[in-house]
Design a protein that fits this description.
Layout: E1 5-8, H1 15-26, E2 29-32, H2 54-69, E3 73-84, E4 88-101, E5 106-114, E6 121-124, H3 127-136, E7 144-147, E8 156-160, H4 163-177, E9 180-184, H5 192-209, E10 222-228, E11 242-248, E12 255-259
Parallel strand pairs: 1-2, 1-3
Antiparallel strand pairs: 3-4, 4-5, 6-9, 7-8, 7-9, 10-11, 11-12
Helix pairs in contact: 1-5
């Protein structure tokens, strides 16, 4: 990939964190997609519903940007926000990052799932509620959105990043409807916390690109599954902690288990269903 042009499929300034990492690690020359409108594939604020799953949406972003910019190498991300899939009542940011290289028939993707997010929303009717919500979601360094009601796109004010506009927008909506709905603006350019997650996903993608298959030497040899079974240090019974990561090559299908990925060969009895049922 060294020396090649790579197009970043974004209209929300994700290149600020993606480009420096890729250029330094891979030697590519990053450009931002021109005439690119990712909102056609869905918006966080709901005006355009996302019709495909996050991975497919990220792939479609790459293909759109490649076509518009006459480029055979592209990267795109797609984020999803809501309840954490396993923890439960905790908000999570689930970022998918995809690189497509049509010159070498490569497609490499990674996922970064984290609870490091300010994602939130609330119906409010007083300035006190407004201020409390804004402070809790790191406003004004993080943008917010105010609308008539949750899920209602008939009147919506996005990209609010200063107190003057926040107060004005709230009063305007409240005067018309009695209450307002405030939520975090999850577009990357208005959300530094999300930008950090995208940077982590980018580094994870770089690591995967630099991991080649032992059999065919194609880049992208990555983890597809964590296998439980790390034995208890007291009774040797298999625990639910990770014993091995299963790696797989998308090109030739070769698989390999890498044992003890966290650097320990036994688990503390605290996490054993026999010793600590």
């Amino acid at each position: 990939m060294k020396g090649r042009k790579l197009v970043i499929a974004t209209m929300h300034h994700k290149e600020n964190v993606i480009a420096p990492l890729l250029e330094r690690a891979l030697g590519v020359k990053c450009i931002v997609a021109k005439n690119f409108d990712s909102d056609l594939l869905g918006t966080f604020s709901g005006e355009v519903e996302r019709t495909f799953d996050p991975l497919t949406t990220a792939k479609n972003k790459c293909l759109m940007a490649m076509k518009l910019n006459n480029c055979d190498l592209a990267i795109a991300s797609e984020g999803s926000f809501g309840a954490h899939p396993s923890i439960g009542f905790v908000h999570a940011d689930d970022e998918i990052l995809v690189l497509i290289d049509t010159q070498n028939n490569l497609e490499i993707s990674v996922r970064e799932l984290t609870i490091e997010t300010n994602f939130n929303g609330q119906e409010i009717s007083t300035e006190r509620e407004l201020i409390k919500f804004a402070e809790n979601v790191k406003f004004p360094t993080h943008g917010v959105i105010i609308r008539k009601a949750k899920g209602d796109n008939s009147e919506i004010i996005k990209g609010i990043t200063n107190w003057e506009l926040l107060n004005k927008s709230f009063k305007e909506i409240k005067r018309k409807y009695g209450t307002a709905y405030i939520e975090t603006d999850m577009r990357a350019m208005y959300n530094p916390t999300r930008m950090k997650v995208i940077a982590k996903a980018t580094q994870k993608l770089i690591d995967k690109i630099n991991s080649s298959c032992p059999t065919c030497n194609i880049p992208g040899f990555g983890v597809i599954k964590a296998k439980p079974g790390l034995p208890c240090s007291l009774c040797s019974f298999p625990t639910q902690s990770t014993l091995a990561y299963e790696y797989k090559c998308k090109s030739c299908g070769f698989t390999e288990d890498k044992m003890f990925p966290h650097g320990k060969i036994h688990e503390d009895p605290t996490y054993c269903n026999i010793c600590n049922p």
